[in-house]
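Exercise: predict the fold of this chain.
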Amino acid sequence: MMNKDIFVKLLQERRYKSVKDVLDVMNAVDIASLLGEFDDKELALAFRLIPKEKAADVFANMESSLQSVLVEALSEKELKEILNDLYMDDTVDLLEELPANLVTRILDASGPKERETINKLLNYPEDSAGSIMTTEYVDLKPYLTVGQALAHIKKTGIHKETIYTCYVIQQRKLLGIVSAKDLMTTDDNVLIEDIMETEIISVSTLTDKEDVAHQLRKYDLLALPVLDTDGLLVGIVTFDDAMDVMVEEATEDITKMAAVSPSEKTYFEVSAWEHAKRRIPWLLVLMFSSIITGTIITRYEDAFAAIPLLVSFIPMLMDTGGNCGSQSSTLIIRGIALNQVTFHDFFRVIWKEFRVSLIVGVVLAVANGLRIYLTYQQAGMAVVIALSLVATVISAKLLGCILPMCAKKIRPGSGTDGLSADHYHSRCEFHYDLLRYRNESISPVGIKNITKSITVTIAFFLHFSKILVFIWIYSYNIITYDIFSYCRQRPAVSVSITCRKELQV
C-alpha cells in the first residue's frame, strides 16, 4: 500500500494525474484504508480523484465516520452517482450509521423506487436476515434457454451483487437455482428448468442473521435466498455479508464475556469516557460480588490464624478454578457458535467435562501435593489441598460448560430446531405480533440480544465458584481448629505432626 506522506505530498503539489494513476491500480479496500488516515479536507479531495467505477466500492469499505464526512462534503450530483453504484445492502448499512440529517440528504438523492426498497429493508428487525439481505440478484425464468439466460446476465449482471448463483422464479416464487458454472458448461438450446436444482436451501426474512451465516458456512454457499412468509423471494444474503455478521457476533460475544458492553464503533472511534462507561457497571458488579468472599474469609479468621500457611494457598486454588472454568466455557461457546454442540448434548458434555476435569484435577493435585509435602513436610496439609484442588477443578469445569448451554437454551428464536419452514415462520410471526401488541421495541430475533447477555454472567458465576474453594478449605479449617482445641484440653493424645508443632508453640 502506498505511503500516506507520499500521497499527501502529491496532493499538495497538485499532481493530480499521478494521484489518479496511483488510485487506478490500488485495490478499493486499500484505498479506503489509506483515506482513513487523512483529515476532512484531504479526504474529500482524494476521494474525488478516485475512478468512478471504483468510487462506490471504496465508499462502502470506509468507516462510518469517514462516510459521514464525505456525505456532507460531496455535491448532490456526486452523492447520487455513488448511491446509484452502491448495492442496496450497503446503502441500508450506511443509513443505519449516519445521523438523521445526513439520512434525509441521502434519501432525497435516491429515486422513488430506491426509497421504497430502503424503507422495506429498514423495517426488518435489526438482527434478522431481512436487515442484511440485498434485493439485487440475477433472476431467470424457467422457460428461457441457456443462451437466452447468458444474454440476460450480460445485460443486467453489472448491476447485481453476484452472478455466480442465479435464481429461477415464476411470479416471485422460487422454483430453483442455477450456477454460472452450469450455464457456461451447458448447450445454449437447453432449457433452464432442465438444469436447475430444486433442492433449495433458504431462510426466512425473520431468521437470525447469525443463523444465516452458519447456513452459508455449513453448506459452502456463495449466497443464500431469503423468502418472506408467503415463500416469495425477496432478496439474497451473500457470503461477504455473512463474514461481517460472524465478525460482529464474535466481537460482541467476546466483549460481553469480558464484562464490557459491546459497541459497533471501532476502538479509536469510541472516546475514553464512552469506554469507561461501558466497563464501569460490570466492574462494579464484579467488585461488589467479592464482598461475599471477604465475608467468608472473615468468618473463619480464627481458623486461618491457627494455620496461617493455608492463606497462601487460596490464590492458587481460586486462580486454578477460574482458569479451568474459562477453558471449558470457551470451548463450549465455540462449539455452540459452530453448531457442534447443542442443548440436546447437555449430559454428554457434562459427562465428558467431568472426565476431563477428573484427569486434570488429579494431575494438578498430585503435582501440587508433592510440592507442598517436599516444601513444608506436612502430609496432611498436602492431602487436604490436593483434594480441594480436585474439587475446585471439577466444580469450575462443570460450571463452565453448563452455563453457556443454559444461556443458549433460553434464547428464543435461535433456529428452526427441526421444525418445518412454515411452522417456524408462523412461530416467528406470532412472537412478532405479540411483542408489537405489547408495544415492546424488540422482535423474536431481538429477544436473542436480551438472553444472550446472560452469557455475561458466566464470568460472574465463575467468580462465585471460588466459594467452593473456600468450602473445602474451611472444612479443613474447622476440623483442624477443633483438633487444636481438643489437643489443648488433652495434651497426651497422639495427634498429627501439625498439631504437635502447634502445641509446642
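Check your answer against the key: Residues 72 and 101 are 10 Å apart (CA to CA).
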